Structure formats: structure tokens, C-alpha cells
Amino acid sequence: ETGVTQTPRHLVMGMTNKKSLKCEQHLGHNAMYWYKQSAKKPLELMFVYSLEERVENNSVPSRFSPECPNSSHLFLHLHTLQPEDSALYLCASSQTARGAWGYTFGSGTRLTVV
Amino acid sequence: AQSVTQLDSHVSVSEGTPVLLRCNYSSSYSPSLFWYVQHPNKGLQLLLKYTSAATLVKGINGFEAEFKKSETSFHLTKPSAHMSDAAEYFCVVSPSGNTPLVFGKGTRLSVIA
User: Fold this and answer.
1) Nearest C-alpha in A relative to B50
2) Can the peptide bond before residue A8 be classed as cis, meaning omega within 30 degrees of 0?
3) A110 and chain B: CB distance < 8 Å anywhere?
């Protein structure tokens, strides 16, 4: 247990479904992140939240919609995904958005779009 | 802009032999540097970090890394590989300002019995 909890661990969804990924941290961190990790590709930063405000959105398609209701929780809402969206989605948190002391990662959600 | 280059995409060693995973960084100032490990279908776990204190940094599971400013390197080493060390390793740099960490592309370590 790292202090960052992601649910569910595995998710299979059809292209017309709507689902949400959840991330929770109780480390007292002020910044949270969503990353996408696809096979044989570098880690891709999707979204950054600092003090509950979105500070970075790396040209992510609108079918991915993040939500940060408070500094402890982060969601990724999924809608009409494509098969190429199948990947490991990782949540991370850090004390500040700069992350000078590193990030703490969750175990990830393995998403399969069918 | 800050960046990291992991010089090997795959390293294979025999159990009990030394491990060397190479990382070079590019930074206009003295950065914070990290190594993370990822086992299959798991999240990334912090192995060690350098934050301008001692240049030789010791981490978990017997790993260590040395910050060499003159060579802009931060190579990860371990004296004796164990089967459980087989994983993906990421070298990471912390850029200036409020910008996220920059990750290398990863080095896959295989350990042969």
C-alpha cells in the first residue's frame, strides 16, 4: 500500500459505456496527476491538478474528463472510448505541483476497451 | 528544457552479477533526480532520490545511484542482481518552476537464473 489508492484495479468497457476511475490519497499532498501507460510507449502525462485546480491538460481527447472535488480525490470520467485507449491508467500525488520530492503512485487501473 | 535519456531500453544480467542502468540528464541548473521501479501491472515505486545533498544516494532493495555533475549522469547500480529485481526502471528529473516531473522512456531489466 503506497498511500495512493486506485479503483477499480481492472475495468473492461464497451465503446458506448460511461465509467469512472477513482483515485484517493491521504498523504496530505496538494497535487494529483493522471498518467496513461500504453504498451511500448513512454509514460504520458494527461492531467495535473494543484490545490484542486487543473493546471495542465496535455491535449487529451474530450472523451476523458477529469474531476478533482477536493485535494484527496481525483476522478477520470470515461465516455465513448476507443480500443486504442486500452492502457494502464496511473494516478499519482505530490506535495506540490513541482514534485521536487517525487511522486507517490497508485497501483493503476488496467482498462480494456472492447 | 530539462530531459533525461536512458541509454539502454533493455538490460539483461545473470542472477548474482552487478546491475548498471544508465541515465543522462539535461538541466540548466542542479536538478532533483529520481529512479522509480515498476513491476508488471503495478504502479511506479520510488527507489531513491537525489536532492542536492550527498552525491551517492542509497535506495531501497540495495540499489544506489551516483550524481555526477561533470558527466550529467545519474546511473543506477546494484552489486548483485536478484530475480525479484526484474522490472522496468525509470530515471526522472524535476524541472524548474511548477512543471511536472520528466520521465525517461524506461529500461527493462531481465535477470537470468
Assistant:
1) A101
2) yes
3) yes
The mean per-residue pLDDT over the stretch A84-100 comes to 90
The pairing of strands B107-112 and B10-14 is parallel
Residue A1: its pLDDT value, please? 57
What is the 8-class DSSP label of residue B44? E
Residues 31-90 of A with CB under 8 A from B: 33, 42-43, 45, 48, 50, 55-56, 88, 90
How many residues would you count in chain B? Answer: 113
Q: What is the pLDDT of residues B20-60, one digit of tens each?
A: 999 999 877 778 899 999 998 889 999 999 987 788 999 99
φ, ψ of residue B16 in degrees (nearest 5)? 90, -10
DSSP-derived letter for residue B17 is S
- For residue B94, list chain A residues with Cβ-Cβ distance below 8 A: 98-100, 102
| Rounded distance between C-alpha atoms, residue A94 and residue A99, angstroms | 6
